[in-house]
């Protein structure tokens, strides 16, 4: 199995998320950056080897064919927009994701600084988020986040592409969303209603039993099962972020959660988002969305270290003389579309429902 990037680490105290688009003509600069990222990580981590520095780079669907010739990951596709009766999961421009995490903020900053120096004018940063650990792994709304993450071999299995796509075995898929939280509205409803919205107790982090947990609670709608009724895992590495000026009734800043989920395929996270925003059944949407708004959405493929160390060739430029008298008139080919969904709201595959 090729060596994966270092996705699975202990929960660090800091993270930096850089979401970028590739500028026209910037493909060569991005390829150079991808090839050098490993050495940059080694250089920075050597200054504090006990601080768990990791840097994970992932590539979006629209960028893949601009950067590489040949095959592409089988399930790499654009982020699916979900427009529910009340709330929407939007798709926003994103070609590259650099997820940096460590126990020291300066290490995250330094690796991010070197990365941006390497990329230069090849990219435009469309979102830069500095995340931090909040007390005992709590979100800013006061609940522990990530309690249901698998551990050990189960975590590896949950995020690793296998024999189903042998050319990209060892890689992962990753989905991101940035949420803005309305803290005034959230704090106004009281602890009992907050617990019903989450499906878990606030103080001691105990999940409600199925006969008590509301069907529109966040936890209830984030369960996806296979055909045998077994829950399918993903690995979330969410982090709180924000300005303190964004937490009051008159706040002008922004604060909330940066959602990031790694998986062996995008189907599971797409099904979770469908249930959250559309509802299960339709209309029974995630109650938490009444207090936090998704403002970004993108998904990517996270290739292995072996892939980054030996990149596929760049696409061959079209050198044909389009002005030749013998050249046929140009015609527009079909535009790529987001994957369609069956009318019953299912994924259309037997392993998920």
Give an overview of the whole structure:
This protein is of the alpha+beta class. 22% of the residues lie in helices and 20% in strands. The chain has 8 helices and 12 strands. Strands 1, 2, 5, 6, 7, 8, 9, 10, 11 and 12 form a 10-stranded antiparallel β-sheet that branches. The protein has a two-stranded antiparallel ribbon with strand order 3-4. Helix 1 runs antiparallel to helix 3 (105-119). The longest helix has 19 residues, at 27-45. It starts with 13 loop residues before the first strand and ends in a 44-residue tail after the last helix.
Name some characteristics of this structure.
single chain, 353 residues, two-stranded antiparallel sheet, 8 helices, globular
Continuous helix count: 8
Q: Average the pLDDT over all residues and give the rounded result.
A: 90
Beta-strand percentage range: 15-25%
The biggest beta sheet is recorded as:
10 strands, antiparallel
Order of helix and strand elements from N to C terminus: EHEHEEEHEHEHHEEEHEEH
Structural class: alpha+beta
Radius of gyration: 21 Å
Shape: globular
